[in-house]
Amino acid sequence: MKRKIFIDSCLIMDLLAERDLFYTYAAELFTLAYKGKIVIFTTALVLSNVFYMLRKIKGNAESKQQIKDLRLLVNILPISENIVDMSLNSIITDFEDGLQYFTAKENDLLAIITRNGNDYKIKDIIIQTAEEYIKMNKETLENE
User: Fold this and answer.
1) Is 129 buried (19+), middle (13-18) or exposed (0-12) by CB count in 10 A?
2) Could you give the CA distance from residue 42 to residue 2 in angstroms, rounded to a whole number?
3) 12 phi, psi to nearest 5 deg
4) Which residues of 39-67 are buried (b: 16+ CB within 10 A; e: fewer)?
5) Distances (CA, A) of 120 to 46, 48, 114, 130
6) Which of 3, 69, 86, 133 has most Cβ atoms within 10 angstroms of its Cβ?
7) Which whole number is the average pLDDT over 32-53?
8) Residue 99's pLDDT is what?
């Protein structure tokens, strides 16, 4: 069974904006998806946020094309009314992080990959950076 993970907007931005300190591990994570070693999920909200930030750097046309290309690797999960309500009533203080957490949980995802792990006060799902995820799972992923 392939590992299913949720990707936060910061990881997508690290990849598409080629952020110096974080690009390498973000690219490696997406390469694992390209090779079929993992399955990556996110939400339309995350892509919307990425587009908003990316267009300030690369303009509308290039940003839209990059997200089109990214869609070949990323599956989109819906955010239901139930997820919204759970996030609003959660101990997770950041509403968007709550949406991501409950979306991941509702869809039985293994982990949330983010650089903002401290924002999640929940211990029933793995919260890691791309670097942590890759280093922790390197041997297993190579053998699959």
Assistant:
1) buried
2) 16
3) -65, -40
4) bbbbbebbbebbbebbbeeeeeeebeebb
5) 16, 21, 10, 16
6) 133
7) 95
8) 95
CA distance 137 to 4: 13
- Cβ burial of 115 (10 Å; 0-12, 13-18, 19+) is buried
Amino acid letter for position 118: N
Q: Which amino acid is at 121?
A: K
- Within the chain, strands assigned E span 3-7, 38-43, 74-77, 111-113, 126-128
pLDDT 10s digits, 60-119: 999 999 999 999 999 999 999 999 999 999 988 899 999 999 999 999 999 999 998 777
Chain length of the chain: 144
Distances (CA, A) of 31 to 8, 55, 73, 74, 134: 16, 24, 9, 12, 11
User: 5 and 110 in contact (C-beta within 8 Å)?
Assistant: yes
Q: How far apart are CA 43 and CA 74, in angstroms?
A: 9
Distance from C-alpha of 40 to C-alpha of 31, rounded to nearest angstrom: 11
pLDDT at 1 > cutoff 70? no
Helix (H, G, I), strand (E, B) or coil at 32: helix
